[in-house]
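Example with several molecule types.
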Amino acid sequence: QKEVEQNSGPLSVPEGAIASLNCTYSDRGSQSFFWYRQYSGKSPELIMSIYSNGDKEDGRFTAQLNKASQYVSLLIRDSQPSDSATYLCAVKGNTPLVFGKGTRLSVIA
Amino acid sequence: DTEVTQTPKHLVMGMTNKKSLKCEQHMGHRAMYWYKQKAKKPPELMFVYSYEKLSINESVPSRFSPECPNSSLLNLHLHALQPEDSALYLCASSHPSGIGINQPQHFGDGTRLSIL
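Resulting structure tokens for the full complex:
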């Protein structure tokens, strides 16, 4: 059974701080990694894709991948109240996309 | 606004009704997906179509019947649903899976389904 693990939270950070979201996965054959943001009652929205080890930055978001440790993370710099949402880690290998249960982030103004 | 359009946004139906959910995308994707999502849970894969052919059915009850009329459209036909089927139904699309890197799935806004 392919598994993706996330801390369910809630993770509370003050406005302007860095939020760090973590994800581990069990399938060593995984090659594609995604972060989705989901507001309550809404659909998942793609935030980042990462495929190779290292960091990938897009605006205030940085995704980090370490395949040896089977670990992927998302950093959100200068967190805003509008970042308050559930963040889903999703991993793809040769099987269908597997989602983690999500981490609920709360940014306190 | 998303590039994957789902209709209707909300649907309330009785257990004896027949209804259909619709999904349309114009991103040139040849893989389309149906997911079911309950509150505070991640999306749960139901069906995958690749090049308009059903490639994955995750042991979904037969009261859910998918259909892919062409590369842009995906339907989910509903019949004799149960109250536990109340959920957010999400459609997604992507380039088909291959060996190695896979492009991300893009989700529609979903249909909120309530079974009375």
